[in-house]
Amino acid sequence: MTGSLNVTPELMLHQILVWLEQMYGGESVPQFELNQKTISILYKLMQENQLQDKNCQLVIDDLRQKAAEYGVEAQRLSRVVKDVNLSQGCLSQSGVTSLRTLANLALLLDVRDASDTSYLLALQNLSSDLMKTAETRKQEETCLAEFTQKSKAALHKYNSLLKTLHHLEEKSVTQRPETEKRRKKVSFFIDKAKQYKGSMQKLQAELTRVGADPSLYHQTLVKKSEELQALKQKIAPLRIKLQMYYDLPPDLSQTKVKIEELKQQVSALESELTRRIDLMHL
Q: In angstroms, what is the C-alpha Rg of the chain?
């Protein structure tokens, strides 16, 4: 309980009873349930009530003091008016109005007396407060304009997004059959891929089990075919060159040697070509 950490429950109850008797002014205090919760609530209510009474008393004392000061000032002004042989009845209607205006202004400005200095200081403070209020209002108007601009931009963006959303929803409705068709195709391809993968694993296991030669695999045969084509490309220019040597005179010894060398090279390449062709036909 706030403000009652060092107060015992017995002391709290005693203070509550005294406060209730004061509140009811000698009348009988209504019965209430005595428990910790009730006492806590009443104690808090008592503290708040006493604080309000204290604040009210301060305001009353201040008003009484101001009333006394106004009374003293009124007596002083009455003496001044009396000394110059003036009274309220001697004042003109405009004078009475001016006097009442000054009195109302003094109450409004909360001045301590009716001197010119008090009025001027009060009016200066009022002008200062007015300038601060105007500056604050200007800042608030600037902030309001910024918030308004941001709100308009956010609203425009919201409308744009809403329009885009509606367009996408309409597009989704029109494309839903095609999307569903594609989804089924994708599902079908995934299932087929799983089936093919399983079949490949089974076939690979079967090839391993029967001891298949890796040189007969498609990838190996493709590679050998490429090598065969390369060999054919190498033999072609050698054949042309050999044909040139065939056209030379037969009695030249060096020509014969070259021809024999070329024959051997061609024979070796033809043998390699034949071997590879045989491997492809296995």
A: 58
Q: In the chain, which ranges are continuous DSSP H helix?
A: 9-24, 36-83, 93-109, 116-210, 218-246, 253-281
Cβ contacts of 228 within 8 Å, gap of 6 or more: 273, 276, 277, 280
* Measured torsion, CA atoms of residues 117, 123, 127, 130, in degrees rounded to the nearest 10: 150
Burial track 96-131 (b if 16+ CB lie within 10 A, e otherwise)? eeeeeeeeeebeeeebeebeeeebeebeeeeeeeee
pLDDT digit string (tens) for 101-146?
A: 777 777 777 777 767 777 788 888 888 888 999 898 898 888 888 8
Closest listed residue to residue 48, CA positions, set 25, 84, 23, 80: 23
Task: Decide: 221 and 280 in contact? Cβ < 8 Å.
Answer: yes
How many angstroms separate the CA atoms of 204 and 195, rounded?
A: 14
**Rounded (10°) CA dihedral 108, 114, 115, 117:** -10
Cut 0.85: pTM above it: no
